[in-house]
Amino acid sequence: MTKLRDEAARTGAGLEAMRRLVPTEREVPALLEEISTAARRAGLEVSGVVPDPVLKGDEFDTYRYKITVVGGYHRLSTFLANVGSLPRIVAPVAFTLTPAPDAAQAPVKPGVTRPPQLAASVTLQTYVAHGIATAPADTVAVRPVANTGEILP
């Protein structure tokens, strides 16, 4: 009986880990904030986020976002490492590097140059498991608020 309880506990822990990696509800605002934070921690500037159409699947749906960041080469690798460390599955599936616009190449201050700046377009892919109804990709859930003039989170 103890072996069965131990196995049930391990299975439950494994299922909980799967729920964190591939949640059953859309967490787009939180996910985009985590990705933006990963870029800022690497010292990059996020210059664009564009969602791709959702790829529907039998067990889960695939969500892709094209993120454009600007910064130095080594900072881009730090960003990808930060994304790989996020608490849910987020995989880079396409990566394009181009020289950053001239404004990004300007010196920090007179006489101080910085490494050449690059614009990286990264397509990040994540997954949402079926199970709980999800909002369409182009909608945001809004909580009704009484007309009190108070701003609520």
TrEMBL record:
Gene3D superfamilies in alphabetical order: 3.30.70.60
InterPro entries associated with the record: PilO, Transl_elong_EF1B/ribsomal_bS6
Signal peptide: none
A GO biological-process term: type IV pilus-dependent motility
Protein name: Pilus assembly protein PilO
Organism the protein comes from: Gemmatirosa kalamazoonensis
